[in-house]
Amino acid sequence: MILLSDGLISKPVIKLTDKLKEESPKPTFLFGQRGSGKTTVLNYYKGTNVNHWVDISLEDNEKYHLYNDVYFKTYHLTLVVKKVLLFIEQNYPSEFKKYFLLFNARVLNLLNLCRVHSQLGAYYNIQKDDLTYITDFTGEKLIQDFLTILMAHFNELDLTLIIDNFDGVRSEKYQRIIYDTLKNYFHLLLSVTDEKVLDLDSNNRLILVGYNTDVNTLYEILNANLLKERILSLKEIETYGLHKLISHWAMKELISKTNGNITMMKIAINVLYNTYNPRDIDDNVLLNTLSKRVSVDSEIVRQTFGKRTLYIK
């Protein structure tokens, strides 16, 4: 375990991050089951790869219903360009004002028109309006124009676009537009839970998250969470940490009963230490807590996960 300014990071997270940093022309899929720690890996990757990534994950307040497929595609690709422009503005403000100000106005205007169209179309099904000039290629042309400006004024700005929980956006149209278009212009890093990703062809790079089933790593992660939640001090971890009280066999039972979900494991261990004096904790107490105390709380965790589907092939 390595102590960083923002907390404790286990070696497997660092190892996976190093893999993500390896240059590859192929889109990269970070695959792991629910609660396996994909977001932790991505967050560490962001923190150690400063100024080389843009998170383009789709937020709830960015979801609009556009009855026209061409407008739908234009909206989502324009939204991506807007997020990349925001990255330029925040990190290179002088260059943004010199080279991107008018282009940014064009992007914002197009986004606003799409949003208005969404609101009007939902009520009046308008077939002819201010967006009639848009074609299926409008969004992609916007990306090309952006990259033309970028390459003219930035020699070594190699950006990776990141989407966490890519298959959580349960829209085949959205997934295909984002994947099929952006892979031609940017490095893509997408985290997914749907096992269909394992069947994708060799045009993609697949990195597996598996440290959620490694006992020694979980000792580190769960002990770090006890520190973070101030349940134990660093000195108390040396005597009453999980690695001192709970056997490998019991930890494997914890993994099995939570299906490798680290979030659920943290809940179980927090309940364990908040219920019992650390001096009284052993394998039997852990398993008893899992069967009698944690199952109801775990249902809450399960409800936070919607069905995830990967449509691209």
Write the layout of secondary structure elements.
Blueprint: E1 2-4, E2 7-9, H1 11-21, E3 28-31, H2 38-48, E4 53-55, H3 69-91, H4 93-124, H5 138-153, E5 160-163, H6 172-182, E6 187-192, E7 205-208, H7 215-228, H8 234-240, H9 242-245, H10 248-258, H11 262-275, H12 283-303
Helix pairs in contact: 1-2, 3-4, 3-5, 3-6, 4-5, 7-10, 7-11, 10-12, 11-12
Q: How is this structure best summarized?
A:
This protein is of the alpha/beta class and 313 residues long. The protein has helices spanning 11-21, 38-48, 69-91, 93-124, 138-153, 172-182, 215-228, 234-240, 242-245, 248-258, 262-275, 283-303; strands at residues 2-4, 7-9, 28-31, 53-55, 160-163, 187-192, 205-208.
Key structural traits:
alpha/beta; 7 strands; two-stranded antiparallel ribbon; 313 residues; 12 helices; disordered N terminus; single chain
Number of separate helices: 12
Task: Report strand order across the widest sheet.
Answer: 4-5-6-3-7
Which oligomerization state do the chains in this entry correspond to?
single chain
Q: How big a fraction of the residues is strand?
A: 5-15%
Biggest sheet architecture: 5 strands, parallel
State the end-to-end CA separation: 38 Å
The SSE string, one letter per element, is EEHEHEHHHEHEEHHHHHH
SS-derived structural category: alpha/beta
